[in-house]
Amino acid sequence: MSAAELWAQILWPLCKLIGLVSVGLFVGNLIEAMHWTRFMARLANPLTRIGRMCEISAASFSVAFVSGVTANTMLAEAYDQGRLSRRELILTNLFNSLPTYFLHLPSMIFITVPILKSAAVVYLGITVGAALLRTVLILFIGRILLTGLNRCHAMDMPAQEKLVARQVLQKTWSRFRRRIKKIVMITAPIYVGVHFMNKLGMFAVVEHFLAEHMSAMSWLHPKAMGIIVFQLAAEFSAGMAAAGALLDAGSMSVRDVVIALIVGNVLSSPMRAFRHQFPYYAGIFRPKLALELIFCSQGFRVASLIFCGAVYYWMS
Question: What is the pTM of this model?
Answer without folding.
Answer: 0.71
